[in-house]
Amino acid sequence: MDYLVRATAAEGQVRAFAVNSTDMVSYAQKVHGTTPVASAALGRLLTGGVMMGSMMKDEGDLLTLQVRSEGPLKGMIVTADSQGHAKGSVTVPTADVPPKYAGKLDVGAAVGPGILQVVRDLGLKEPYSSQVPLQTGEIGDDLTYYFAMSEQVPSAVGLGVLVDTDWSILTAGGFIVQLMPFAEEGTIEKLEQNVGAISSVTDLLQEGYTPEMLLEKVLDGMSLEITDKMPVSFYCGCSKERFAGALEGIQAKDLQEMIDDGEPIEVVCHFCNSKYTFTPDELREILARRNK
Predict the structure, then answer these.
(1) Most CB contacts within 10 A, which of 94, 136, 242, 261?
(2) What is the CA radius of gyration of the chain?
């Protein structure tokens, strides 16, 4: 079962998050039919997104991570809440690029140059939005850069997705470790040493590392204290009612054209690929509500 842990270390000088996101990424792969490199890219963004979502405090808070890029994948979007739910999609799920070397997917080449936009909707009048240029397209590096530049929080982000030869997801997960403003020099140096000693998050996951074990390795010798544990999952929440509400928002003449065609229309959720059919009679009801 997928789950996330929150922790502190070095007497509160460090806060940390780690997650096993295997089932979440597997669901995304099956829904979108992603190639291995697309699975790795979207899986990393989902993994980072669900951890960043857990940093928010209130139930209604929403986080959106959007990558707009020039590589074959063209872009990705992930949304997450504070309750461990995340969903995501990739613009070109069938895109592929040659591996970096045998057994190593080239996520950076698949993503390509572009920007990462982070939007936090905290229930205020205006959502908080910030964007940074992608650094490598490897996602972990890009989120690390985002935290440093947009939030001024020194962070280490490690993300991994291991894809089998049949395109199924063997394992996925990662960590985010952040220094508090009052962190001492010795704490900073120790964390840098520990992070520098980790060659690959994917390798650790393949060895069977749990979220707790990931943090024990990253925060070795720093008095790690796990403070919370919560389940995480791919969750969309779309419904026919929500799409009906969206149809109410389009122009009356466009709705009328659909009705005049006399054929049912099908709408598809780009996050989970659920399909919803609206008959001409249902469209008439939507148009009547819109015109009230």
Answers:
(1) 136
(2) 21
Q: Cα separation of 273 and 270, whole Å?
A: 5
| Residue 76 · residue 68 · CB < 8 Å | no
| Distance in angstroms (rounded) separating the CA atoms of residues 13 and 171 | 30
Query: Rounded to an integer, what distance in angstroms lies between the CA atom of residue 202 and that of residue 200?
Result: 5
Place of tokens 């936009």: 117
- Give the model confidence (pLDDT) of 18-47 as tens digits: 999 999 999 999 999 999 999 999 999 999
8 Å CB contact between 185 and 13 = no
Set out the domains of the chain in order of their start, with CATH numbers.
Answer: 3-234 (3.55.30.10), 240-290 (3.90.1280.10)
Whether residue 59 contacts residue 72, with contact meaning beta carbons closer than 8 Å, is answered with: no
* Whole-angstrom distance, CA of residue 231 vs CA of residue 74: 31
pLDDT digits (tens, 9 = 90+) for 242-284: 999 888 888 888 888 989 998 999 999 999 999 999 999 999 9
d(CA 251, CA 287): 9
**pTM of the entire structure?**
0.93
Helix (H) or strand (E) holding 68: strand 62-69
Who contacts 185 (Cβ-Cβ below 8 Å, separation ≥6)? none
Helix axis angle for 252-261 and 280-290, nearest 10°, is: 160
